[in-house]
Amino acid sequence: MKQGARHMNKHVERCFPEFVVGLTGMLLFLWPVLGQGQEIDKTIAVQERQVGTNASQKYFLIQHKATATSTNKQGLILILPGGPGSRDFLPFCANVLTRYGFPEDFMAAELIAPEWSKDENRIVWPSRIFPDKRAKFTSEEFLDAVIDDVGKSNRVDERFVFTLGWSSSGHVLYSASTSNAKVRGSLIAMSRFLSGKSVEAEQVRGKNYWLYHSPQDRVCAYSEAQEAENFLKEHGANVKLVSYEGGHGWVPNTFYCDRIMEGILWLKEKSAALQ
Predict the structure, then answer these.
(1) How many Å separate Cα 210 from the centre of its chain?
(2) Out of 27, 103, 158, 236, which residue is the most buried by the measure of CB atoms under 10 Å away?
(3) CA-CA distance, 174 to 82, in Å (whole number)?
């Protein structure tokens, strides 16, 4: 068994801190191309970084080599992987999401979830909504610090700072969308939503959300994506809910990279219109 597959079996998938999934077949959809030994595609450049002296705030800066040295401003997509949120997601985030799903005028920052404990039932991405007393900072603070850190060395187009996450990280993206003014758009896949908790309702107006969810999802109910769509629209947000067949996870043969590209371009159009 490959190292990435062994790693999958050591963890449980959480789309919500209280919800645990132990089905290996479903996990395979959630970790499509894991494996620390996998090489990064020659068209993609990757740097491992940390925020200042904080060794718990590590991330990968991922760029298309064709535009990595450009002096033009670029959009920034902050990726919070689902599942255990570990560094093993790099091949998927670089070789799949960035290469096929992100426009060349966007760079990506893949955050590595700090492992505050070895408890399999831990909250992978502690947030202001779901705190963990062992965490030294919230995931929203981590995300904010990475935005600033990338901006110190790269020209970031502040109009196009988006987040992308799925399953265990979805609650952080909803929270950051209304608590962090630097976040201009959110791509949230296969995640749960609580209307009275996930977002600050009074801060939703003018925000942009692209949601991706399967009606056959038995882990995170599709009805909650519909609830998110209705709630956010009622409070003045721009929302697009895109569905796919097959259930929870990045399901093969659903052309999800094409859909992500469409989502980014949709968020870019909405964000540009607000300027």
Answers:
(1) 12
(2) 27
(3) 14
pLDDT tens per residue, range 232-261: 999 999 999 999 999 999 999 999 999 999
Q: How far is CA 181 from the centre of its chain?
A: 17
pLDDT single digits (tens) 190-226: 999 988 899 999 999 999 999 999 999 999 999 999 9
Q: Give the tens place of pLDDT for each residue, 83-135.
A: 999 999 999 999 999 999 999 999 999 999 999 999 888 999 999 989 999 99
According to DSSP, residue 127 is labeled -
User: Could you give the angle at the alpha carbon of 33 between the alpha carbons of 172 and 112, nearest 5°?
Assistant: 35
- Extended strands (E) in the chain: 13-16, 19-21, 44-50, 58-64, 74-80, 106-111, 156-166, 185-189, 208-213, 238-243
Distance in angstroms (rounded) separating the CA atoms of residues 271 and 275: 7
Residue 139: in which H helix or E strand, if any? helix 139-153
Q: Sheet containing 74-80: which strands, arranged edge to edge?
A: 44-50, 58-64, 106-111, 74-80, 156-166, 185-189, 208-213, 238-243
Secondary structure element (H or E) that encloses residue 191, with its range:
none
Give CA–CA dist 253/78, Å, rounded: 25
Whole-angstrom Cα Rg for the chain: 17
